[in-house]
Design brief:
By secondary structure, the chain is an alpha+beta fold. It has two domains: about 100 residues, Phosphorylase Kinase, domain 1 (2-Layer Sandwich), CATH 3.30.200.20; about 190 residues, Aminoglycoside phosphotransferase (APH), C-terminal lobe (Aminoglycoside 3'-phosphotransferase, Chain: A, domain 2), CATH 3.90.1200. The chain contains ten helices and ten strands. α7 crosses α9. GO terms for molecular function: transferase activity. This is Transferase. It holds the Pfam family APH.
Length: about 325
């Protein structure tokens, strides 16, 4: 297979110039090529970035290979299906096509706001998240599958629990984690939290802080990154929110969306086990600038020792447990 060309600012600018009827629509400053083109800049690190900011109004996403092309085409169709069901913005494509033979692009309108890393989600924002979860339940599963959205079998919480216990023991030996935090999830308890038959819904499956658009007042204004969506276990999205905004907020949003205690607890334990496993893997990675243990362990128990997710912070905001 022919290797894809490496996107550069010049090639991106030329592509965008041809897409926008007036190049000023995508120009933030006069610092484009000779002042004659839209201002473009990579949205992330890397020698061959696939996502580019175009002024302040657009985002250009380039599929770097054939697999990414298939995922992008599916994502564009899925976004159109999801948009009427959710109360927040879903990116809209103003132009799409091929930027290289067999490789697609989409020029999306930018959703105003910051990331979940920049702004905390407020209590009102939790209601926005509840609307997202509710909307995902309303999307017809068969329609999503017709678009090519895959169906994913629910994960075994017991298998995940055993893996997390081993990881917690390694972390405890290194004095970086209290393994007793997992004691509440016994084999019997994990058996009670298996995914319920017939409960599959469309799940975003990547509700990370980078995919939530949050305004300065804590409202959730949009959800990005629909390429990983699957038809599957709704607890996976509850788990994603637990890791992203914290366990009380995730439980509150899921409860408002109509989920009961069982999927909420399953989601929280999926998140807790995942975080411990990932933390153990991270501590085995060589570090150029070693961090103190308290910094490395901070990420895992944003879920804290409160699996029911009942702790509240000040009015309007949730306190993030450490």
């Amino acid at each position: 297979m022919t290797q894809a060309p490496t996107p550069t600012a010049d090639t991106v600018r030329d592509l965008v110039r041809s897409l926008l009827t007036d190049s000023r629509d995508g120009k933030e400053t006069k610092q484009g090529r000779g002042g004659a083109g839209p201002d473009v800049r990579p949205a992330g690190a890397g020698t061959a970035p696939a996502t580019w900011w175009v002024g302040t109004r657009y985002v250009l996403r380039l599929a770097p290979d054939r697999e990414a092309t298939l995922r992008q085409r599916r994502e564009l169709r899925l976004r159109d299906l999801v948009r009427p069901h959710v109360p927040v913005a879903v990116p809209a494509s103003v132009a799409q096509g091929e930027w290289a033979p067999g490789l697609t692009y989409t020029l999306d309108t930018k959703v105003p706001g910051g990331s979940g890393e920049e702004h905390d989600v407020s209590a009102v924002g939790e209601a926005d998240l509840a609307g997202v979860l509710t909307g995902l339940r309303e999307v017809p599963v068969r329609q999503a599958e017709t678009l090519g959205v895959p169906r994913a079998a629910p994960r075994s919480l017991e298998a995940l629990r055993r893996s997390a216990v081993r990881s917690a023991e390694r972390l405890a030996d290194a004095d970086e984690f209290d393994a007793a935090r997992l004691n509440q999830l016994t084999a019997a308890a994990s058996a009670q939290l298996t995914a319920q038959p017939g409960s599959v819904v469309l799940t975003h499956h990547a509700l990370t802080s980078g995919h939530l658009v949050v305004s300065a007042d804590g409202r959730v204004r949009g959800v990005l990154g629909w390429a990983d969506a699957v038809v599957g276990d709704p607890a996976e999205d509850i788990a994603g929110l637990a890791l992203t905004v914290d366990s009380p907020a995730a439980v509150h949003a899921a409860t408002l969306a109509g989920y009961g205690a069982r999927p909420c607890l399953r989601g929280l334990w999926l998140a807790r086990c995942d975080s411990v496993i990932h933390l153990a893997a991270a501590t085995r990675q060589p570090r150029r600038h070693p961090e103190p243990p308290w910094q490395r362990t901070r990420a895992a128990p944003r879920l804290g020792a409160d699996p029911a997710g009942t702790r509240d912070g000040p009015a309007g905001h949730r306190r993030r447990p450490l």
